[in-house]
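[Automated response] Your request has been received and processed.

Submitted sequence:
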Amino acid sequence: MTTTRPSGAAIDARPSDRRTIRVASVPAAHVYVQHLAPVTDRLQLPFVERLPDPDPDDPARPAGAKWWPPTMLEPEWVRTHPEFDLMHLQFGFDARTPAQLAELVDALRETGRPLVYTVHDLRNPHHATRNAHDEQLDVLVPAADALITLTPGAAAEIRRRWGVEALVLPHPHVVDLETMRQTADRMQRAAGEPFRVGVHVKSLRSSMNPLPVLRVLAEAVRELPNAVLQVNGHTDVLRAGERFERPLAEFLERAAADGLLELHVHDFLDDDALWAYLGSLDVSVLPYRFGTHSGWLEACRDLGTAVIAPDCGYYREQGPVLEYRNHDDDFDPASLRAALHRAYGSPAPAPLRVQHRVSQRDEIASAHARLYESLVT
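Generated structure:
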């Protein structure tokens, strides 16, 4: 038996004897975690209830939009909150030391709750070097009662580094299903509209090195008939603020003045504005020099925007990408030009069918429910 719900609705109708598994999800409000809930509920499986994120300033209240730093990672919170059956860690432990993570594991063991960890990042995109994240992983990966990751390549790396197996489950959709439907209905580009190449420099994580990529693209896009390079960035990176990047900002201002690119400087985009922008691009170029997986890539797939991705990490395993060489300090301009020409000469990818994403999400949700059930039985 199944029940179907709208994309954002909660599933309440369930048999009174159906088991509920309560999950302390770290975090709960992230879109990835929200899309682990099924669209079509399989009533023969346990019902998964994810606790709301506590407000970091007042742990007695739900957090709403603010979930960081995660209160659930405090050992004292674990010991004083018996209302969950297991913890599922996704993100948010960047600021925790290995010793603090070990204390969290000890608190879970003491209170008899299993730990599930989804390994999104094998190299932290916010850290310039890998040492601190490696030390955190050295605590979490061996301690977890179950591991999940998003691609076979990441699972192979986990196996190689720690000798343990991770369940491979794909990344669910990022864009909401209704926006995906609307995008699929208006895919045809108007005659004469330029081929639009986008690079988003937003908050400049340590994994991003956009300036060499942009120098190549500014020249390469100019060589393509009826093509435009669009660069979007946040105000605090390109105008003023603690994260102001003067060399990048100066290059972009000069290039825009010379007609080599369109520069759009703005503050944080809400979801509607972000999807409209991303869906307006023909191809999005990821200027990463290290990393593992990408939610941005998945959003592009949802909207039918092609992706040029670096050969670091496991982006190529998430879905079809046009690959170029950019791995730590090994950037190959010729491979980026070649990827751009392939994108320009290829038909636009169709957005992933909504029904495909619905079926995929249901399978991912079912896999989580079965895994949780195996750990708490």
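Summary generated for your ticket: Residues 151 and 168 are 6 Å apart (CA to CA). Confidence is low (pLDDT under 50) at residues 1-12.
If you did not submit this request, please reply to this message.
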